[in-house]
Amino acid sequence: MLICGLQRLSLLDYPEKLAATIFTGGCNLRCPFCHNASLVTRVSEVESIPEAEVLSFLKKRIGILDGVCITGGEPLLQSDIESFISEIRNLGFLIKLDTNGFYPEKLASLIDRGLLDYVAMDIKNSPEKYPVTVGIPNFDSKPVFESAKLLMHGSIPYEFRTTLVREFHTNKDIEKIGRIVKGAEYYYLQNFEDSGDIVGFAGEQDFVPLSGFSQSETEHFRDILASYVENVKIRN
User: Fold this and answer.
1) Would the pTM of this model clear 0.90, i.e. be above it?
2) How many CB atoms lie within 10 A of CB 106?
3) Contact indicator for 122, 100 with CB cutoff of 8 Å
4) Which fold has domain 3-234?
5) Which of 59, 113, 214, 225 has the most crowded CB, counting CB atoms within 10 A?
6) Is the separation of the CB atoms in 5 and 47 below 8 Å?
7) Could you say which DSSP state residue 84 is in?
8) Given phi > 0 = left and psi -120 to 50 = alpha, else beta, which region is 213?
9) Are 23 and 71 in contact (CB under 8 A)?
10) What phi, psi does 223 have (nearest 5°)?
């Protein structure tokens, strides 16, 4: 496991749970608005944390923490993710996975083995806007929506979420997303904010600024999705 960060206590990452958050390094996407650029494009510059050290910490938190959130980067890039989660599960913790949804087979395997209790999956944009939104020319978004279907037809709690960026999202995009995930239980919209550590546009010599939406615009997107999804919330 390539572990590049450990937040020892989070009240926000796992809904209604006290959790530790583990950050894995590396991602298959290059979303310009990603706020964890150091875990995507500069992984070699980040000091890794030994797996044994993380497990040792978690053993000391048995009975104190409810769960562990595994995020990234993209955790499903890690070849030993299943064995790592198994070790954490054996300690008695609930497991929440954050994923971009590009690896439906790996996601299905984790679910089938009973290793996940909650999944938060990003839906970056409507299918035809995926390549520009994730910074990968000719990107095939079909696996992402396979993962979405897997979660919607499954039995574990999940949420979909989209980071809204003015340069990428329109009313039509949100409408198309809504049609695809019609019947989903929970959807969270979060407005883009520059963390100071964003990926940006590959190959650009000059910084290209990105921006979010106003509160009223964000609420309008929420209302569009609410025609298709039972619970749509704005997360700040």
Assistant:
1) yes
2) 18
3) yes
4) TIM Barrel (3.20.20)
5) 225
6) no
7) H
8) beta
9) yes
10) -65, -35
